[in-house]
Structures are given as structure tokens and as C-alpha cells.
Amino acid sequence: MSESGTKQTLGEVRLKVAYKKPEDLLSEYTRSIGRGGVTLHTQKSLPVGTRFVFELHNPGLAKPVEVLGEVVRSTPQPGDRYLLTVKYDPGQDRGGLDTVLQRIFDLQEYEKMRRHARIPLNLPAAEEETPFAPLFFVRDLSRGGVGLEVEAPALPTSVKVGMPFLLEMELSLGTLMLHGEVAWTSAGGAEVLPTFGVNFGTLRPDTVERLEKLLTLAAMPPPPWRARICFGIDAVMRMP
């Protein structure tokens, strides 16, 4: 990732960022939209209501993917600096987003090891029924399964191959409940967090429809994005 430039006009700040891979661009897009906003340290105060346009570029894209933002708070900081709170909005123009999604699907179409193309999500998930459980992150999602990362030095004992699994999240279309079982695990290492993958079971038609909408980012949940996961008997009892 490399910042290509910043341009400011009256009431609007436009920032251009370039990404070598379409997956990296989409990962940053979902991370930004999922958080719902960002705080920026600046040397100049900007009035509340100032608009930001973050242009995410990838070589070969006719137009960038845009993330819109608006300054909702400007707080003075020591040393003549300011802390800006910017609220994100995915915007209405999907031209660039649809193009980068299609590019990712096309690039992954001929992968022999995978049946379905994956998209990055950057979605925090919690195992709410288990006290002191670590935080999980949904890193990628496909029609056939999901990959997760665990913010812990080791995988929890509940994460083992064959264990029933359920992921729940709220979309603009309603609740999405994806059930399956753990298909593989990786213990991680000194600088790599533990990860695991889940294969989905047979999903209901309405669940498939909602999943398809999410995979094209057409039914995103309201920010900040959150999900709930559970394993074992808890997952089985909650499965639709």
C-alpha cells in the first residue's frame, strides 16, 4: 500500500491510496466500512462537516473504489495538533467496487485448491457464551466456508477439526446464520496468530440469498461490524 497524494478543496479533502493487489484494496475497504469511522491526528483543524473522499486505487481499474467520510468532531491536542473523528460512508457509486470484486472472483476462478472465491471481511467476532474467550476475526468468506483468526497465543480448546460451528451477524436484510464444522486448524507461530477454517453445511435458501448479497457487499451490516460465534452443542442448538 502506498499513499499517492492528498488534495484539499473548500469543504472537501481527497486522499488517494494505491494497492498492488485487489485483495489488499478490498481488505482495506471492508476494514474501514466495518469500523464505521477513524480518528486522525493532524496539524490543522478542519471544521465539523468537512467531507473526506478516500480513493482506493488498483492498477488496471478504470475508476477507484471510494470511501466517503465526514468530520464529526475536532479535538485540540497538545503541541498545536488536532484529533479528528471521521465517520465513514460507503457511498452510492458502486462502479469501482463492483469492478474490483469481479477481478477478485476472476483471479480465483481457476484455483485448483478452492471451489469458491473468497473475499476479505475483517469482521470481529466473539464467543459470547464463553467467559474470557479471546477475540476472533473473520478474515475471509466464501460460498463454501469461512476463515478465522484468533487473537491469542494458541487456539482455544473448542477449536478442533470436526467441531460444529455457527456464525451469526446482522445484515440489512436480516440475521445471517452460517453453520458448518471446523475443517482445518493452524497453530500459528512467533509472529503469526492461530487460524482455522470452516466448511459450511447445507444452508437454507434464504440463508444462501443473504450470503450471496454479503459476498457482493450489497447487504452489509450497520457499523461497527460485529458477529457472534459458537462451537459444539451451543452451535448445534442454535442452528436454523
Task: Provide keyphrases for this structure.
single chain, 240 residues, Thrombin, subunit H, seven-stranded mixed beta barrel, six-stranded mixed β-sheet, 19% helix
User: How large, in whole angstroms, is the Cα Rg?
Assistant: 20 Å
Output the structural class.
alpha+beta
CATH class call of the largest domain: Mainly Beta
Average pLDDT score: 89
By DSSP (H or I, 4+ residues per run), the number of helices equals: 4
Report low-confidence residues grouped into runs of 5 or more. none
Distance between the termini: 41 Å
Main sheet attributes: strand count, strand direction, barrel closure: 7 strands, mixed, barrel
CATH architecture of the largest domain: Beta Barrel
CATH topology group of the largest domain? Thrombin, subunit H
Strand content: 35-45%
* Secondary-structure element order, N to C: EEHEEEEHEEEEEEHEH
Counting structural domains, the number is 2
- CATH level-four homologous superfamily name of the largest domain: predicted glycosyltransferase like domains
Structural commentary:
The model has no long low-confidence stretch (mean pLDDT 89). The chain has two domains: 2-105, Roll (Archaeosine Trna-guanine Transglycosylase, Chain: A, domain 4); 114-238, Thrombin, subunit H (Beta Barrel). With 240 residues, the protein is an alpha+beta fold. The protein has helices at residues 22-35, 95-108, 205-215, 232-238, and strands at 2-9, 12-18, 37-42, 51-57, 65-77, 81-89, 119-126, 136-141, 145-150, 164-171, 174-186, 195-200, 227-231. It has four helices and 13 strands. The N and C termini lie far apart (41 Å). Strands 7-8-9-12-11-10-13 form a seven-stranded mixed beta barrel, surrounded by four helices. It has a six-stranded mixed beta sheet with strand order 1-2-4-5-6-3. The protein is 19% helix and 42% strand. The radius of gyration is 20 Å and the shape is globular.
